[in-house]
Design a protein that fits this description.
Distance between the termini: 208 Å
Radius of gyration: 58 Å
Strand content: 15-25%
Structural class: alpha+beta
Length: 788
């Protein structure tokens, strides 16, 4: 019994001893894991406080130095020369930059980081020194190209160092995160070992279990809070990089492993979880940029030469961006180990710089000349833009050297007016800007040009005028064009020719006063209507088609046209229509210029009548007779008919004319001419060819005998008494006739001679009769007598 009890006692004691051991071991591991968590938390919080301060300082520094800060404002000052606009911003940037540099120096203990910071400080002190030089040059009136030559704004070294700092901080954060995670892993291993032991002794170590659970809960709470703070600090660092558009990269040359910061992923349009190799990264560059980068990397590895390039990439979304990438090889002993650098999105700054440079170039090539002259006698030129040579013929150096003063360039006839305008506008302290009326200047070559001068007044602190500055524009062409326009307007208003302006559809846009006088339509009546309202109806559609065909093909048409005025009267116009075309040859309007030639046409008609008709009897004369006879011969040939030519001479007319005078004789001739015309048909022609001689052309005859009744009627008409006042006068006629066609070819002149010969035979035979020319019997004459 005793041995059995003793054995049970030993077993219980052993179990109790083992349980106590397990509990103590569990307590050891639980407390150890809690201490590891607390140690990791303390280290990370210390790092986060430091990283936050560095991130904020870097963000502030970038804001003061980059786009919208010192570098950006300094570039604008150099290009625009606008000191009042940029000076206060630049000087505020300088104060802030120096403060941030001091703060970063206190926060960065690492020697490499301090060296980078020293590079930043050195670079910006050089720029600040350049800024002081620019201020002095601006006061002396230096041009933008002169300022740019002295103050070359190169922010490469500073941005390279700034990017290295950002990348260093990002990598340090990654190392710290890895260390913290390793510490947490160790703590968890202690905790889980302790937990396993607790589970083995749970029945005997409730207190140890409670302590273990408390340590687990505390550890999880520390992990959650610490991870949240880690995410917050990393977000702050990412924000800094985003604000600066500045990312970093690092590549192990042996393994080829590539590391990108979050901003580098963002610039390329990739999520931060993406896996990117060196070859993948190179594909984001445009082909030309890719080759440049490859050559730069090769040179950096082989010759240990850093690079600084502005290149173009194409993001995952297809956007083309400008980036600045810098790189440098870090060696481990004799062999290169790591290449790292920066990656900055400079698209906005690049575009702004390109735009500013383009604007500067455009201004230098434009006709707008910038000037600055002193408020001294004769206005000596202190500054003028380089393009002044195009306008004045003088170079900028000639004008600013003092050998040429501005007042001597103003035309002598205009200098007094310009001086009065300057004095007037300068007399008011409130006046800041004014524009001269256009005035003339004389170039170096003696050419006279018109210019417009927009001037701003510059005053010192006491309000005294020190300078006049502004721009000069060559307005010679516009001035001449304006004068020509005024002349054209005067001609339009005062010319005696009517002018019509229409659009391409023919709608009337404007008319002048002469148009109204000629047509009777006022501007209010006619504008908006079509010129067809003036149509007289005398022209067929083919006439107007030919007119518009000529306008389309040649751009103009001219000719005579019959139109109708507002009162319904038909008027004759001499019209010229021209197409007005733009620089591309497209017709914009039509202009019609016309004069009233109605009286001239009437006079021409009268002259035409006189040229073809006898002024006394109004019968056709020799000219028209010849034309009618030729037409009658042609018609006879076509119709295979006959015609007769009758030559008539009055018997006894000379005696009446001598006895009673020419007036009485003229009245007798007028009456006999009318009777002769009435005796014939419409197709016949009777003409007066001499004092008392007449010729008749009898057409459309079936044969020679068909003419006999007509001939007899003429003889009878000539023999009838004529009452002239109180006188009763009477004559007779001798008439010769010939026919066509004849056996031989006979022309009009031969027919007239034949008829004349036959008339002569009639007179010889006793007058008051007719004789027929007989061509078949070789000119023998047959006499015919008709009693009066």
């Amino acid at each position: 019994m005793v041995p059995s009890m003793l054995r049970q006692h030993h077993q219980a004691l052993a179990a109790l001893t083992a349980g106590a051991f397990v509990v103590l071991t569990s307590l050891f591991f639980g407390v150890s894991s809690l201490l590891h968590f607390q140690e990791a938390q303390s280290a990370w919080e210390l790092h986060n406080a430091h990283a936050t301060a560095v991130a904020k300082s870097l963000s502030d520094f970038n804001h003061l130095a980059g786009y919208g800060g010192f570098i950006h404002n300094f570039k604008n000052l150099v290009l625009r020369r606008d000191l009042p606009r940029y000076q206060k911003h630049i000087e505020a940037n300088i104060v802030g930059l120096r403060a941030q540099l001091d703060q970063l120096a206190a926060l960065l203990p690492d020697e490499k980081d301090k060296a980078a910071l020293g590079q930043i400080r050195s670079t910006f002190e050089v720029h600040i020194s350049d800024y002081a030089k620019v201020l002095q040059m601006l006061a002396a009136g230096a041009r933008s190209d002169e300022l740019d030559a002295v103050a070359k704004v190169d922010d490469g070294p500073a941005l390279n160092a700034l990017a290295q700092l950002s990348t260093s901080i990002a990598m340090h954060a990654a190392d710290t995160r890895q260390l913290a995670q390793s510490t947490y892993a160790d703590a968890m291993r202690y905790a889980w070992i302790g937990g396993a032991l607790v589970l083995m002794a749970i029945s005997a170590a409730v207190l140890a279990m409670v302590m273990f659970l408390r340590s687990i809960i505390a550890a999880n709470d520390i992990i959650r809070k610490t991870q949240a703070k880690m995410a917050e600090r990393e977000a702050q660092l990412g924000t800094t990089q985003r604000i600066a558009h500045l990312g970093g990269w690092k590549s192990d040359l042996e393994s080829g492993r590539l590391f990108w910061t979050e901003e580098t992923f963002r610039i390329c349009g990739l999520p931060v979880t993406a896996q990117v190799s060196v070859d993948d990264a190179l594909q984001y560059y445009l082909p030309e940029s890719r080759e440049r980068l490859k050559r730069a990397i090769k040179t950096a590895i082989e010759d240990a030469k850093p690079f600084d390039l502005e290149l173009q990439i194409k993001t995952t979304q297809g956007d083309v961006r400008w980036v600045r990438t810098q790189g440098e090889v870090w060696r481990e002993g004799a062999e290169p180990g790591v290449i790292s650098g920066t990656f900055q999105d400079i698209t906005e700054d690049k575009q702004a710089d390109i735009a500013l440079r383009a604007a500067h170039d455009i201004f230098e090539r434009s006709a707008v000349v910038a000037f600055l002259w002193r408020n001294e006698e004769n206005w000596p030129v202190e500054f003028v833009s380089n393009n002044v040579t195009t306008l004045f013929g003088y170079t900028a150096e000639e004008l600013t050297s003092g050998s040429v003063v501005y007042s001597r360039l103003i035309h002598p006839d205009d200098i007094s007016t310009v001086e009065q305008e300057v004095a007037y506008f300068s007399s008011s302290a409130a006046e800041k800007n004014f524009t001269h009326r256009p005035y003339r200047i004389t170039t170096k070559g003696g050419e006279v040009k018109w210019i417009r001068d927009d001037t701003a007044i510059r005053r010192d602190a006491e309000g005294n005028i020190t300078h006049y500055q502004g721009v000069i524009i060559d307005v010679t062409e516009s001035k001449l064009a304006k004068e020509q326009l005024q002349l054209a307007a005067s001609v339009f208003a005062h010319t005696r020719e009517g002018i019509t302006i229409t659009d391409t559809q023919g709608t009337i846009l404007d008319v002048n006063d002469a148009f109204t006088e000629i047509t009777g339509y006022s501007r209010e009546d006619i504008i908006g209507l079509n010129p067809r309202i003036l149509s007289s109806g005398r022209h067929e559609a083919a006439f107007y088609k030919a007119m518009w065909d000529a306008l389309t093909a040649r751009g103009h048409w001219s000719g005579e046209i019959w139109n109708r005025n507002k009162n319904g009267e038909v008027i004759a116009e001499l019209l010229t229509i021209s197409a007005i075309r733009d620089g591309h040859g497209t017709t914009q309007q039509y202009v019609g210029l016309f004069s009233d030639i109605t009286e001239r046409k009437a006079h021409e008609s009268q002259l035409e009548h006189l040229a073809h008709f006898d002024a006394l009897t109004n019968l056709p004369n020799r000219v028209l007779l010849a034309d009618r006879l030729h037409q009658a011969i042609a018609q006879t040939q076509r119709r295979q008919q006959h015609l007769a030519v009758a030559y008539l001479d009055l018997d006894g007319f000379k005696a009446i004319n001598d006895r009673h005078g020419h007036k009485t004789g003229d009245q007798l001739l007028i009456t006999l001419a009318r009777r002769l015309k009435e005796a014939l048909r419409e197709v016949d022609t009777v003409a007066r060819v001499g004092g008392d001689e007449f010729v008749a052309v009898l057409a459309d005859l079936e044969g020679p005998t068909a003419s006999v009744p007509l001939i007899n009627r003429m003889l009878a008409a000539a023999a009838l008494p004529v009452q002239v006042g109180n006188l009763s006068l009477q004559v007779s006629a001798s008439l010769g006739v010939t026919y066509y066609p004849q056996a031989q070819d006979t022309d009009a002149e031969q027919l007239l001679r034949q008829a004349d010969q036959a008339m002569y035979r009639a007179k010889v035979a006793g007058k008051n009769r007719y004789c027929v020319f007989d061509a078949a019997q070789d000119g023998s004459i047959h006499n015919h007598h008709e009693e009066a």
